[in-house]
Amino acid sequence: TFYLSRFISILQVMWSICKKELRQFFGSLTGYIAIIVFLLVNGLVLFMFVVGAELRLPGGARRHLGASGAIGLACVLLPCALGLAIAPFLHSRFAPQGVAFWPFALFMAASLSITAFPVMARILKERGMTESAEGRLALTSAAFDNVFAGFVIALALISSRTDWERFAFTLGGSLVLVGFAIWILRPALARGFERY
User: Fold this and answer.
1) How far apart (Å, rounded) are the C-alpha atoms in residues 136 and 142?
2) Model pTM greater than 0.90?
3) Contact 51/121 with Cβ under 8 angstroms?
4) What is the secondary structure of 44-60 as a DSSP string?
5) What are the pLDDT digits (tens) for 106-127?
């Protein structure tokens, strides 16, 4: 019940922040499909929340960050390089009209390097490997991999538009969010976890 109450509070915060966008997305779907998509998305979010909440890093997270970051980066560099290598051959045939080469190449690089993180987490959980050193390393490395690929996709989206004022606003907002998460949210969560 502890995880469920935390998940419900996270959903309430997400709903209050993204009300308009969620209504637009689910409003475009009709009938049973909307219900199925809603259940699938929330089931995935709940599952990933539970996996993250159960993930324990003996010796602290800092000890594992170096190895996980190095493995995650190594696992993303080869697919990114392959995506950049095949992009010149695919751009003229598959790029939509008006899409420049570099946004297309960055998208190809990111799409080849993203892992199926929830699928891997489910496999590790079913095999009881989320508590093993190998399972923890695989999960944290895949998380680094997906974060890096997310940055590459964001870079592709930003480079496809020429609105630099909006880019600066988005970058500044992202830095504020990261600062808030590191220096305010993280200590508050640590105090909350110590209390419970």
Assistant:
1) 10
2) no
3) yes
4) HHHHHHHHHHH---TT-
5) 888 888 887 777 778 888 888 8
